[in-house]
Design brief:
With 413 residues, this protein is α/β, with parallel strands linked by helices. The chain has three domains: 171 residues, MoaB/Mog-like domain (Molybdenum Cofactor Biosythetic Enzyme, Chain A), CATH 3.40.980; 79 residues, Alpha-Beta Plaits (2-Layer Sandwich); 153 residues, CinA-like (Maf protein), CATH 3.90.950. It is built from 16 helices and 17 strands. The chain has a six-stranded mixed beta sheet, sandwiched between helices. The protein is elongated, with a radius of gyration of 28 Å. It starts with a strand and ends with a helix.
């Protein structure tokens, strides 16, 4: 089955609102065994809406439309659909009663404009919207299904999950589709592809692999479809075990778990604590670690030593070493890690010192040069990295690399 998504709204085309509806729907449709062939964003224009629906019908079996069902004059989708399907207007009492109930709960006065939202086409299946005032509309014509839903995300999502997807599954008897994502870090996409080439080549024909890279992380998505749900899941799980033989240290989890979540699980499991001493990352590692609920169990604090004075006064870094080697150096970052561990009384400490950019680089230490150190009871280890010229990516990649160094260190215990 092929589907097309049409998002209506001038706000989407001028960049005022990001079209998160379409990406969310695409995921849900794919999981339901329905292939999305196109996604379009169009203006609040009657002719544009009509032509978009006609063109979508030539490509897809299912057309899902969001937007333009509100009570104001710029919301014209319902009117256009009624013209397109030669509909007559009926007053739908259940929809009106739902509007009355919602307005009553919120203690809002009901206007005539809101009442008009209960006037709906006579030749569609009306999909009740239990969390909003605009009902969904399911049309069928020439073996095509066209569904119109409100653009408010939580209203659309409720209709999709509770009514649209279940109806589509019954109508089209869609196949089972299963995805599993393998999360990797510390290795680039091309190098990763080389290391797992043999594994990838030997994947069963019904399993597809997609590389989804982002700064510091490469996600590997395995996808399979068919009628035997148990067999598909079993084979995907088997392949996830097999890939560990090729890149055991790079894999930190599955199904979009974050690196900070994976690290948190290890720290809690081993009953260990950590602190950070951050220069170029400016507290970003601490932010990531504390974004996890219950992080106070393992994270004790951070010293953001952006200036040399703070490095010296708060972390006991030797001023002579800063003068001799520079703040971005093995000597300094190791002292930062040791100082944080001692001052904050933790089992481990992570330290970063680097040149995030865009300025501050030299021929010897260009922008993107970053030293990372891990201190523990056993001593201190450090490593030099060169991440590139983009400040935001340098900060992000430094934080991920620091957490991954700690993760690998903990796995050795």
């Amino acid at each position: 089955m092929k589907a097309e998504i049409i998002s209506i709204g001038d706000e989407l085309l001028i960049g005022q609102v990001v079209n998160t509806n379409a990406s969310w729907m695409a995921v849900e449709l794919n999981l339901a065994g329905i292939n999305v062939v196109q996604i379009s964003s169009i203006s609040d224009d009657a002719n544009h809406i009509k032509s978009a629906i006609k063109e979508a019908g030539s490509r897809a079996d299912i057309v899902l439309i969001t937007g333009g069902l509100g009570p104001t004059k710029d919301d014209i989708t319902k009117k256009v659909l009624m013209e397109h399907f030669n509909s007559k207007t009926i007053f739908h009492e259940p929809t009106y009663n739902n509007i009355l109930e919602l307005f009553g709960k919120r203690n809002y006065p009901l206007s005539e404009v809101n009442r008009l939202q209960a006037e709906l086409p006579d030749n569609c299946i009306i999909l009740p919207n239990r969390v909003g005032t605009a009902a969904g509309m399911w049309f069928e014509k020439d073996d095509k299904v066209i569904v119109s839903m409100p653009g408010v995300p939580f209203e659309m999502k409720t209709l999709i999950t509770e009514q649209v997807i279940p109806r589509l599954k019954i109508k089209y008897k869609t196949p089972f589709i299963f995805h599993k994502t393998i999360m990797t870090t510390g290795i680039g996409e091309s190098m990763l592809a080389e290391k797992i080439e043999k594994w990838e080549t030997n994947l069963p024909a019904n399993i597809k692999l997609a590389y989804l890279p982002q700064p510091g992380i490469v996600r590997l998505r395995l996808s399979a479809s068919g009628n035997d749900e148990d067999a598909i899941k079993m084979e995907i799980e088997r392949q996830c075990e097999l890939i560990k033989q090729y890149v055991p240290k790079a894999i930190f989890g599955f199904n979009d778990i974050s690196l900070e979540e994976a690290l948190a699980d290890i720290l809690k499991d081993k009953n260990l604590t950590v602190s950070t001493a951050e220069s170029c990352t400016g507290g970003y590692i601490a932010h990531l670690l504390t974004s996890i609920a219950g992080s106070s169990i393992y994270f004790k604090g951070s010293i953001v030593s952006y200036s040399n004075e703070v490095k010296i006064e708060q972390l006991s870094v030797d001023s002579n070493d800063i003068e001799l080697f520079g703040a971005v150096s093995k000597e300094v970052v190791e002292q930062m890690a040791v100082g944080a561990r001692e001052k904050l009384h933790t089992d481990y400490a992570v330290a970063t010192s680097g040149i995030a950019g865009p300025d501050g680089g030299t021929e010897e230490k260009p922008v993107g040069t970053v030293w990372i150190a891990i201190a523990s009871e056993e001593g201190v280890k450090s490593k030099l990295f060169h991440f590139g010229e983009h400040r935001g990516r340098n900060i992000r990649r430094s934080a991920l690399m620091a957490m991954n160094m700690l993760r690998l260190e903990l796995l050795e215990i």
